[in-house]
Amino acid sequence: MDRALLKEREAFKRRALATPSFKSLAASGNSSQYKFGVLARIVRHMRSRHQEGETHALTLHEILDETNQLNVGPKIKQWLLHEALPSNPKVRESEEGSGAWVFNPALPVRDRKGLLKLLRLNDIKGLGGVLLDDIQESVPNYARVMKTGMHDDNIAEYLDRQGIKSMQDVARVFRPARRKTKARRTAPTRITDNDHLAHVLHDYEQQQ
């Protein structure tokens, strides 16, 4: 073989050995990144179906089927059943030992009445309000719930029934100050002595 070709071949081998090899995550099936990717997809799916009102429990096989992940290996399935799902705060078993899983929302409410009850309890206990993100995650069809009965008039009516006075606009009304008008000056009157009796009085000095 030509010496030039041999040199190129040796150089190619050296470059190949120096270049790190990357295995497909799906092919390896046991890497941490792949396992947690499967778990994250499960949690997202469970949250989405809960928000759409589908709150019935699913087995692991049903979850993997709905997320198109039936091709995961047995080791990952065991990891999901015995480690990942039980320790994840966003999912829980519907009943202990049932093997069926449901989404675990941030708030224990399912409808508008439950949400109003929770808000009232928080007000009584002085806990304040709740985060909109938690409502969005917890209440199925939350957008419809927020629109129904959550307008200002409905809220004020509900608070009145509960004996709670809502805040009203008590801002002072600005009234412009009235300008003082200058008093009109009257012309001074000249005081004359007995002019109106001129035809009656007589000048006695002229008569002397």
TrEMBL record:
<dbReference type="InterPro" id="IPR003166">
    <property type="entry name" value="TFIIE_bsu_DNA-bd"/>
</dbReference>
<keyword id="KW-0539">Nucleus</keyword>
<dbReference type="InterPro" id="IPR016656">
    <property type="entry name" value="TFIIE-bsu"/>
</dbReference>
<keyword id="KW-0805">Transcription regulation</keyword>
<keyword id="KW-0804">Transcription</keyword>
<dbReference type="GO" id="GO:0003677">
    <property type="term" value="F:DNA binding"/>
</dbReference>
<dbReference type="Pfam" id="PF02186">
    <property type="entry name" value="TFIIE_beta"/>
</dbReference>
<dbReference type="GO" id="GO:0005673">
    <property type="term" value="C:transcription factor TFIIE complex"/>
</dbReference>
<dbReference type="GO" id="GO:0001097">
    <property type="term" value="F:TFIIH-class transcription factor complex binding"/>
</dbReference>
<dbReference type="InterPro" id="IPR036388">
    <property type="entry name" value="WH-like_DNA-bd_sf"/>
</dbReference>
<feature type="domain" description="TFIIE beta">
    <location>
        <begin position="26"/>
        <end position="110"/>
    </location>
</feature>
<dbReference type="GO" id="GO:0006367">
    <property type="term" value="P:transcription initiation at RNA polymerase II promoter"/>
</dbReference>
<keyword id="KW-0238">DNA-binding</keyword>
<dbReference type="InterPro" id="IPR036390">
    <property type="entry name" value="WH_DNA-bd_sf"/>
</dbReference>
<protein>
    <submittedName>
        <fullName>General transcription factor IIE subunit 2-like</fullName>
    </submittedName>
</protein>
<comment type="function">
    <text>Recruits TFIIH to the initiation complex and stimulates the RNA polymerase II C-terminal domain kinase and DNA-dependent ATPase activities of TFIIH. Both TFIIH and TFIIE are required for promoter clearance by RNA polymerase.</text>
</comment>
